[in-house]
Specification:
The structure holds two protein chains of two kinds.
Chain A lengths: L6 E12 L2 E12 L3 E5 L6 H8 L7 E6 L2 E2 L4 H5 L2 E4 L11 H10 L7 H10 L15 H13 L5 E5 L7 H18 L2 E5 L3 H7 L2 E6 L2 E7 H6 L3 E7 L2 H9 L5 E6 L2 E6 L3 H11 L4 E7 L1 H11 L1
Chain B lengths: L1 H14 L3 H31 L15 H12 L3 H9 L4 H6 L1 H5 L6 H35 L4 E5 L2 E5 L5 H26 L6 H19 L3 H4 L23 H28 L5
Antiparallel strand pairs in B: 1-2
Helix pairs in contact in B: 1-7, 2-4, 2-7, 3-7, 4-7, 4-8, 4-9, 7-8, 7-11, 8-9, 8-11
Classes of the chains: A alpha/beta, B mainly alpha.
Amino acid sequence: MSSSPEKIVEINHLVKHYGKFHAVEDVSFDVYRGDVFGFLGPNGAGKSTTIRTMLSLIKPTAGDLKLFGKDLLTNRSEILSKIGCIVEKPDFYKYLSAEKNIELFARLSGVAVTKMKVHEIIEFVGLKGREKDKVSGFSHGMKQRLGIAQTLIHDPELIILDEPTTGLDPQGIIDIRNLILQLKNERNKTILLSSHILSEIELIANRMVIINKGRTIVQGSVTDLLNGQELIVSFSVSDVQKAVQLLQSDSSIKIASTEGNSILLHVSQSQIPIINKRFCEQGIDVFSIETKRKLEDYFLKLINN
Amino acid sequence: MFWRSTYNEFIKIAAKPRSYIGLGAITLIVGIILIAMKLDGMMYISFITAPFEQSLAFEGNILNGNLMAFIILQMLIIHIPLLIAFVTGDLVSGEGAMGTIRLLLTKQISRTSILLSKYLAGCAYTLIILLWMGFMAIFIGKMMFGTGDLMVLKSDGLVILQESDISWRFFYGFLVAYLALVMIATLALTLSCFSENSIGPIVSTMGVIILFTIIGTLDVPLFDTIKPFLFTTHMAAWRSFFEDPLPMDQIVNSITVLFVHIVVLLGIAIYKFNKKDILS
């Protein structure tokens, strides 16, 4: 008999108003232990306000916030001791070294942290050799890494990363993604990840919530949510004309466009092998099958609706 | 956790270049005053003693280290608040401007503890500034000018204090001066809780001091009722220790007013800091 996974975050009907401005109207979602949880929404959807509320940086107007099964408002200190976070951009004391910054935040985390542990964490995020350098000389990517080091120093159970890849170059994005996966796989952390880069979420998250205009639109398993959706699939074939003629007879398949040797189709996942089989039976060679921007399309569809 | 946070605040103040501006400025100003008095001090003394020369004979080392310390304390107590506000006004708002307040307030330590540790560190910085000024004025002053009786010019006459009767007056005078400067540090910290940039609280603190000082000096009946309650009226209370006999009622009243200001302002700061939504 398997027990259901423990809920680490339970947010129910969160509301935050600033006077007449309604930043969050009705946001609800749950994060389970071990999740890499994607938190998605367009600019101004209320993601940062929700995250700040979860970290007690902002007081909610209404709603319930439970973390680790306890109410945030009455158990702030205990809850925050189990969380590591980066909110928006990782800002540090520029006039202090990387090592001093980590030590300084570690002192407020309620655990005894040794110099060796600080160095170990700095090495883990790939900043070995830069411990003594002042943060003022760090690039944005290095600050992000230092931010992650800061989140890990007290070995938290939940890590909240708000837009961790914003402003990074492609290599930086890959590095941070790998670091997040390492945290999940090697350190068994639960990670709540807010990002604009949908492909990132698709690659690393197992569950997600999408919010818009301060309201939850949908939440659940990434696979379940996306599998029920039509995909855009690109078939690279030997004879595009013949392939188009073959598919036009099937009303369940929508042809989006053709580009060179490729034909783009709106289909469900289950239709892909059937189409492939039909092409082969008709003597049309299939060179490649590629699904395109699955989450991006799903996200835009939800937001635009 | 509170002491860890306080230790952090000491590290931050010690690492900030702006913290040394105050010490540098005091060294420079006191140095200039001492050198100027060494070169041309007797002219200054004769200006003070001129009205009394027909009835009094002045003997001994009048231009001495004690007089230097008194003059310097009197001159700088007006300007030190700027140096204090420069650091304490930045304690909360500087974190907001830098963005570090987001990380700081997501730690398990309570907001009240964070604010009080900042306040304690700010008070310690204020003490260091005052002690440095005391060291420069008293010790360097005595090294350069020797010791002697202290001559204090008042609006209604001249008070001569024996050399053996001065040290304790400086000690208590510095204590009350410290209370006045802590009051400035509290005001700057409180204003810092309302701001998201570093400059605002510093300028506002100086603005309040200038406004209250103007009100205190204007001889308008309307202001007479509020003057006794303005902290600026009591900023120079340390001077009372150089009177003979000591005006104890006046001293106790000044200490009470300054203390009440500190408690009320700190209460406002704690309330505001706890209620504050961190949007930066």
